[in-house]
Amino acid sequence: MDITGEIDLSSMRSMINAFPDLIKMVELNHDVMKQMKEFSREQFRGICILGMGGSGIAGNLCKEMYSDEAYAPIICVSDYILPKYVTKQWIVIGVSYSGNTEETISAFEQAVNRGCPTISITTGGRLEVLSEGRPICYLPIGFQPRAALPLLISVQIQILETILGLIPTDMKVFSKKINSIANTWKNTSISPKIIANEIVGRIPLFIGWQHLSPVAYRAKCQINENAKTVSFFSVIPENNHNEIEGTGMYGTFQIVPIFLRSKYETTQISKRFDATERVILDEGVRSINLRIETDTKLEELVAFTLYVDMISIELADIRKVDSVSVERIASLKRILSE
Ligand code: F6R
């Protein structure tokens, strides 16, 4: 199924609106599926997912989602160096939309040299070359890597569920569900536009727990890249052991805390969110609490990701900035190549 023709690839809004459809767009081909099934029968020590920026976030989301059910560790590496303990008993998933990100390429080369079984997720580039004779999952071209996130998530869900021997998610049903959840936000008090209007001119600090902590990170990155402004993220419970001491300055720096609340919070975690909000309120700063009604943890994670993406695009429009271009990333790359 190819819906890329219907998406305006020069518009971030159009790409984000296509998020639910993109989830069902790429199915693992027969050969890749067969190799993943073979991986699942082999004894392996762990799964290592490589990727930077937009390509790295999907790995972090999946790691948080599947770590509870995995019988071996899942780690994410966003660096040049592959840890020494990633030996040939580890499965390495190389993720780079462009296929040319130097940190990912460097770590992937080390995985190949160590004899690790690999799978690559890319549109081509060096990663494709290095993966010759190895399984590759190709993505449709033309997207900004960060807008390709739904493609990257859905492919990694399929790969991890197969390797870990879990019940496979039906991506078509899942995509429909995410679409119907997104439709419930329109014209309500929690529409992404309303949240964007609340944070404009201030510094949003997204705070999440467990599977919603990489969503908090995604929110920060999307506000940085799409809305071209400052944003931060934080994780409960770690926040309560250090960052909370800085809340006295939230008013001065115009920081607006945004809690990503989960239906799956344990009692201790819920108490910590409520207590953190109270401490911040005692400093005179109101927080925003966001919740999304879903039936499963995976739906919560993916729908929340779409929701924060939508906030970033609304904020970009309010700020009248170009949400697609990433000029500073490009000039940094130019400086590095000099
Ligand atoms: C650009 C973006 C970046 C890239 C990153 C890595 O839209 O989101 O964060 O994802 O520079 O590039 P790729 O994804 O091509 O490996």
Present the secondary structure layout.
Layout: H1 12-17, H2 19-23, H3 30-41, E1 46-50, H4 53-66, E2 74-77, E3 90-96, H5 102-113, E4 118-122, H6 125-130, E5 136-138, H7 149-163, H8 171-183, H9 192-199, E6 203-208, H10 213-227, E7 232-235, E8 255-260, H11 267-282, E9 288-290, H12 297-318, H13 327-337
Parallel strand pairs: 1-2, 1-3, 3-4, 4-5, 6-7, 6-8, 8-9
Helix pairs in contact: 4-7, 4-10, 8-12, 9-12, 10-12
The structure holds fructose -6-phosphate (F6R).
Fructose -6-phosphate binds at residues 52-55, 96-98, 101, 104, 144-146, 225, 326.
In short:
The protein contains 13 helices and 9 strands. The chain has 338 residues and is α/β, with parallel strands linked by helices.
Overall description:
- The protein folds into two domains: 161 residues, 3-Layer(aba) Sandwich (Rossmann fold), CATH 3.40.50.10490; 133 residues, 3-Layer(aba) Sandwich (Rossmann fold).
- It is built from 13 helices and nine strands.
- Helix 9 packs across helix 12.
- The model has no long low-confidence stretch (mean pLDDT 95).
- It binds fructose -6-phosphate.
